[in-house]
């Protein structure tokens, strides 16, 4: 109880001794670590939750960035591959240069028909235009040099059958009395009819 007159009793709640340096040292070195440890133990699940959320946030950001980089790299690589394949396809399907069209060969110019040669051939070989090459060749051996030359001129200006022309040339080359072509003189012992090309068939055998 307090004394009369309202005097305070020594040791009451309002009487606190000052904190000494020793006590502050004990508080900092002993009681503070103990309190921190107790707080950590009590709040450990909250710290774990906060740490997990922070790590998951960073991992999510890293996944988004990595996916973006990978997708962009794939699109770039696909574009390069399509360009390369397109260039190769264009090179493979490129049309080869067109070769110039061959010039058409000019048709062989045949000599104009010789009426005199036609007349000689008509007298020497009847129905000459209706005979086949083999039939004409068999009958050439019975003709003289002038008649053979007439056959050559007429055949060259009409049907131009090589078989007849070659055979007539062979017979002229091997004919003993054939004069040089174009000298205009009749061979010795030949008749006037042979010289002017009007001889009858078989005159020279």
Structural class: mainly alpha
Tell me, rounded to a whole number, the average pLDDT: 73
Shape: rod-shaped
Give a count of the beta strands, DSSP E runs of length 2 or more.
0
Could you give a short account of the major beta sheet? Answer: none
What is the gyration radius calculated from CA atoms?
67 Å
Question: In whole angstroms, how far apart are the ends?
Answer: 190 Å
The helix/strand series, from N terminus to C terminus, equals HHHHHH
Helix content: 55-70%
Strand content: under 5%
Description:
Among the domains are: about 20-90; about 115-180, no CATH class. It has six helices and no strands. It has helices at about 20-90, 115-125, 135-140, 145-155, 160-175, 190-195. It starts with 20 loop residues before the first helix and ends in a 10-residue tail after the last helix.
